C-alpha cells in the first residue's frame, strides 16, 4: 500500500475533527477572533521554524558553500521559503507571511504584546525558548510551540517534514473565511489585511506548497518503511497538538467573555 495513503487514512478522522471543531462556532464576534489571533500567531511563527529546519538540513546555508546533496529537495524547500519569507504584501511591497499576520492583528486591534515580547527576548537570546515562559504568552500557544520544538530536537528530518506537510493551514476550513468576511463587514474593513493573508496563504498551500511538501516527504522517506512509520506518527502528533491548541483557544475565549 502507498505509505502516503496510509498516513492520509490514519489522520483523516483527526483532520475531520479539526475542520469541524467547535472553535468556528465560538468565533462569531470580533473579540473572539482577536483572542484566536493572539494564540494562532504563535503557530504561524512556529511553522516558519519547521521550514527553516528543512532548509538548514537540505540546502547549504553555510560559508564556504558546498552543493546540496539532494538538489531536487533543495529546490522544493527554497521555493517554499521564497513565498513564506518574502511574499507580496498586497501593497506593492514584500513581507513574510508571519509579518502579514502580525499586520492583520494590528489592523483589527488584536493584542500583539505576547508575540512581540517573545520575539524581542528571542533576538536577545537566539536559540533559546526561555521567552516562551513569559506570562504574556498564552498557555495553549506555549504548549503547542513546545511540542513542535520537542520534535525538532529529535533531529528526525522525515518527522519534521511530515509535521510540515500535514500540519498546514489547509486545516482552516472555508467556513473560517466566511466568518472573517462577515466580521470584516461588521467591523468596517478592519480585517482586510487578514483576508489578504488568508487568501494568499491558503491559496499557495493548496495549489503549490502543499504538493511540494508532499513530494519532499516522499523524497526523504523513499522506500524505507521505518521512516514512513516515523512520518506517520509525527503527522498524528502534530494534528493532536493542533486540536489541543484549538481547545485551549476556546477556553481562552470563554474566559475572556466571563471577565467582561
Short descriptors:
Haem_Oase-like_multi-hlx, 260 residues, single chain, DUF3050, Heme Oxygenase, Chain A, mainly alpha, globular, two-stranded antiparallel sheet
Description:
This protein has 260 residues and is mainly α. It has a single domain (24-255), classed as Heme oxygenase-like (Heme Oxygenase, Chain A), CATH 1.20.910.10. Helices cover 73% and strands 2% of the residues. It contains 11 helices and 2 strands, in the order H-H-H-H-E-E-H-H-H-H-H-H-H. The protein has a two-stranded antiparallel ribbon. Helix 3 (30-58) packs antiparallel against helix 8 (157-166). The longest helix has 34 residues, at 225-258. The chain is globular and about 55 Å long. The N and C termini lie far apart (54 Å). The model has no long low-confidence stretch (mean pLDDT 93).
Compute the number of strand runs: 2
Low-confidence stretches: none
Shape designation: globular
Largest sheet: 2 strands, antiparallel
**Strand portion:** under 5%
> How many DSSP H or I helices?
11
How many independent structural domains? Answer: 1
As a percent range, the share of helical residues equals: over 70%
Please identify, by name, the CATH architecture. Answer: Up-down Bundle
Rg, alpha carbons: 18 Å
CATH top level is Mainly Alpha
Rounded mean pLDDT is 93
Structural class by helix and strand composition:
mainly alpha
* Side-by-side strand order of the widest sheet: 1-2
Pfam families: DUF3050 (PF11251)
Protein name: DUF3050 domain-containing protein
